[in-house]
Amino acid sequence: MREVLVIGHRNPDTDSICSAIGYAEFKRRTGLPEAVAARCGDTNERIDFVLSTFQTPAPRFVADISPRIRDVMRSDVVSVSPRTTVAEALGIMDEKDIRVLPVLREDRTCNGLISVYKMSKILFPTPNRPFDSRRVRATVRNLSRTLTGELIVAVRPDQEEDLILMVGAMTASSFSERLSSYPSEKIVVVVGDRLDIQALAIRERVRVVVITGGLPAEANVIEEAKKNGVSLIISPHDSATTALLSRSSITVEHVLHEKFLSFREDEMLSDARLMASSSSFQAFPVIDQNKHTVGILTKTDLLKPFDRKLILVDHNELSQAIQGADQVEILEVVDHHRIGLTTPQPILFRNEPVGSTSTIVADCFLSHNIEIPWNIAGLLLAGLISDTLNLTSPTTTKKDSDVLAILEKRANVNAREFTEKLFASGSVLISKPGSQAITTDCKEYVEQERRFSVAQIEELGFDQFWKRKTEVCEALKEYKEQNSYFFSALLVTDVVRQKSLLVVAGPEHFLRLMGYPEIESGIFELKEVVSRKKQLLPYLSHTLRRHL
Length: 548
Description:
Blueprint: E1 3-7, H1 14-29, E2 35-39, H2 45-53, E3 60-61, H3 69-72, H4 86-96, E4 100-104, E5 110-115, H5 116-123, E6 135-138, H6 140-146, E7 150-153, E8 161-167, H7 172-179, E9 187-191, H8 195-203, E10 208-211, H9 219-228, E11 231-234, H10 239-247, E12 263-264, H11 269-277, E13 283-287, E14 293-298, E15 308-313, E16 330-335, E17 348-351, H12 357-367, H13 374-388, H14 398-411, H15 415-424, H16 428-431, H17 434-437, E18 442-447, E19 450-459, H18 463-467, H19 469-483, E20 487-494, E21 499-505, H20 508-511, E22 518-520, E23 523-527, H21 532-547
Parallel strand pairs: 1-2, 1-15, 2-3, 8-9, 9-10, 10-11, 12-13, 15-16, 16-17, 19-20
Antiparallel strand pairs: 4-5, 6-8, 7-11, 13-14, 18-19, 20-21, 21-23, 22-23
Helix pairs in contact: 1-12, 1-13, 7-8, 8-9, 12-13, 13-14, 13-15
């Protein structure tokens, strides 16, 4: 089923979550019913407060969008059991128009593969091995079933044996001489209405007599067959066809490709392509963690377009996107940050210099004259307020202000009162350990070939930060080392006093270039700086260029 995930960045903030839900609703209402809001990171107490207030469930969690085997495999596996005859297997393959079949045991583990190529060696032996054309490995019952014949006399019908096929198309004396060349108990005689040959074969106690052409067996022939312990089959086919079909009564367990390539259903499709391309097989069993076969993958399946697509909101850099975003088609981007994405084909890219992505999403509803549902209006209001600190951030524009006024009426919410509740709803520095607090709203950037991270925490005052300063600073340093960043920064913003503290873990020579007052080692005071996007990031980029 086709699916379009509308998803924000890793470590989502309120605007990211709310704009994803809002834009998915907008796309569904404008002709994209498969649009689904998603997230690739955990929510926090502040986001949970917003979702609870406006009675909306959190977007679906998706950690990795990378195409997997399960996304393209065929789950309706056509298979056979080890005791299936070659004739039956060939019939299935012809009916289903497939070239390879997995042979599955009762517990759905794969015993091997059978192919038309391997089975053709049974039906068409090579000229340098003429005896193979007369070998029949089968049970009497399978032989009768393969011939669609009638088993008149059944002697040990389910005992599998290695038999020798002999066609009675010669004089009785010549046939008698040939019979003596092989053990009679291993011979299958194919004969028409030659009563003398039938009687001779039964008298010599061959293993099976097959009367061809659908001709009835004489009563005395049946009686003699029972007396001498000879199985008797009536075949509806002529002698040549009967002889050819007899060889295909062998079960597939004897013609298996026992060495075969299989894949786990959760394996990356990109890895499977490399392995499958070098394999001579055209199809591969797909197994689960218990080695049970749950699907079949063909080389054709590997060329299928992946049916899950993305719409990115509140970000447009792959370093911030869900894992695997570079392997699927990105249909749209709705964002208010700097542009950092290139795509192989043109896409709808809506990027506006406003305070929040929620502002852009709300404007989509308004410009298309689509009524904004109450809960969606409330979510977009929360996203706008969160990102603009209720219109006090330097990123705020007139459009943010105009849209917020409309959302207040649609959601029946007072923005000022809601702002107080929103920022009082959950302190990251209270609810999370330092290692999680510094990554709750963290983004990765690349400048001048240097990778670095910038996180932000919005608090009511700095009290909680100073109480946990040592833990937070150590966590930031460890995070930098784990990810091999040039530096990692944390902006702790006081939403009441409109100022921030900047904590930086990085090289000493880089920290010395910072122009803000250093309160303690690696901790700087940033008055009137509250925006990571518009104020801090440009400054850090400038400082990084100076360093180089």
